[in-house]
Amino acid sequence: MADHVDRVLEQWGRQRPDLDVSPMAVIGRLGRLHRLVDAQLGQTFAKHGLDRSSFDVLATLRRSEPPHRLTPAELMRSAMVTSGAITQRLDRLEARGLVARAPSASDGRSVQVSLTDEGRALIDQALPDHIATEAGLLAGLTAPQRDHLVDALRTLLESLEGTAR
Fold first, then answer.
1. Cα(64)–Cα(59) distance, rounded to whole angstroms?
2. Pick the residue with more confidence: 79 or 122?
3. How far apart are CA 117 and CA 139, in angstroms?
C-alpha cells in the first residue's frame, strides 16, 4: 500500500536517480503527520475555548506539584518559547481568569503563576478529551508498534536536542 510520500519518492527516483531521497520518507511523513495531528488536537482544544499554547500553559501548571505554581521562566523552559511569547500567553490566560500572577513569597523580584479555580476546572475538563483525541490518532497502531515508535522518536529527539545520555 503506497501513500503520498511513496509517490513523491518514486517521482524523485525517476527524475533524480543520482540522489538518495530516502530521508524524505521519514521527514515527509513527519510533516504530514504533524499537520493532521495538529488539526485534530486544535479541534479538541477549540471545544474547550483553548488553543495549543493555552492548553500547554494550563497543563504545565496542572501537572506541577501542588500548589501548582511556577515562575514564568519555568513555564518558558517547559514550553520552549521566548519570554515574550510566555508573557503574551500569560496575559491572555490571566485576562480570562484562568491563571493568576503574584509576587513570590521567597523572592520579591520574582513572580509566581498559578491556576485559578476556573483554570484548574477547565484543564481538568479538557485533559480527558485531549487524551482521547491522541488515543484516536494512534488507533491505527498496535501496542508493540507504538512502543517501537516511541523508542525511535525518543532516540531521534535526543540526537537532535543533544540530550543523549
1. 9
2. 122
3. 34
- Between CA 75 and CA 93 the distance in angstroms is 13
- Please give the DSSP secondary-structure letter assigned to residue 114: E
pTM score, whole prediction:
0.87
Residue 146 cell numbers, joined? 507504538
DSSP state of 103: E
3-class DSSP assignment, residue 164: coil
**pLDDT higher than threshold 80 for residue 107:** no
Burial pattern 43-60, b for ≥16 Cβ within 10 A else e, equals ebbeebebeebbbbbbbb
Reading the block at residue 67, the C-alpha cell is: 500548589
Alpha carbons 84 and 90: distance in angstroms, whole number: 10
Taking 80 as the threshold, does the pLDDT of residue 79 lie above it? Answer: no
For residue 161, pLDDT over 80 is answered with yes
CA–CA dist 99, 117 (Å, integer): 9
Contact 60, 79 (CB under 8 A): yes
> How far, in Å, CA of 133 to CA of 11, rounded?
34
How far apart are alpha carbons 44 and 68 in whole angstroms? 24
1 — pLDDT class (breaks 50, 70, 90): confident
